[in-house]
Amino acid sequence: MTANPSMTPLLRRVLTAALLLAVFVPAVLWAPAWLWALLMAAVIGMAAHEWARLSHFPVWPARLYAGLLTVCALILPYALTTDWPVFQHGLILLALIFWLLVAPLWLLGRWQAAAPFARAAVGAVVLLPTWAALLYLHERGPAVLLGVIAVVWIADTAAYFAGRHFGRHKLAPAISPGKTWEGVAGAFIALALYAAGISVLAGMPLLALLPMVLGLLYLSVLGDLFESWIKRLSGMKDSGDLLPGHGGVLDRIDALTSTLPVAAGMLMWLERAA
After folding, report:
1. The model's pTM
2. CA distance 204 to 12
3. Does residue 2 lie within any of the structural domains?
4. What is the dihedral of CA 49, 63, 92, 257, to 10 degrees?
5. How many structural domains compose the chain?
6. Which pLDDT tens digit goes with each residue over 82-101?
7. CB–CB of 136/266 below 8 Å?
């Protein structure tokens, strides 16, 4: 997708977001399970190719890596048949361990994991559970999936505009100089209002919703910072240029890689406890 040079960066960002919503929301609402799985495998394949690019894989190893993760996403649910739910739960558990324990330590220690095998393994840990969570949450209903993704969209949008207009204090300058505490505060306020709205519309207690929504905000920021650190190590500003105003596919789903698997894990736990 080629950007129009006459457009402002903000206009490119808004138009791209509107186009993505016009494609994504109908897919969530009306795509049958097989088509949804196919679409999500394609998304993960594109993100995997960008991850390989960030890891400085040569051209053909990068394509092979992306192809391998795409094939895994396409065939695993059908190849494993009755064992698929166990494998899906295992992927979600792996993501919980990574995002709740490993990723925070990774950023605090500013680990590099420069070896190609290490980068390939981390990419699989980041992307495959995201795909598994997208399938799981879609099975639970469009409202469930959209409700979780809306947390990330609202947080990202509010943080962008609050940081753009009020940003003064850097959140993590050594990792992502553009992110500010004011942006996080804007996201916090927007998500508190979102939780209040859900509480009124769905009849759910606000005191139960707020911790979940704000926990997802923390994970959203964590996922964003993690990809920013990988890009910083790679010396790249964006993971790609497919989406004008946003960068690449991985730039668009970075916060989803941390929030969706944890949200799926929370729902799995609630279902088992019920």
Report:
1. 0.91
2. 37
3. no
4. 0
5. 1
6. 888 999 999 999 999 999 99
7. no
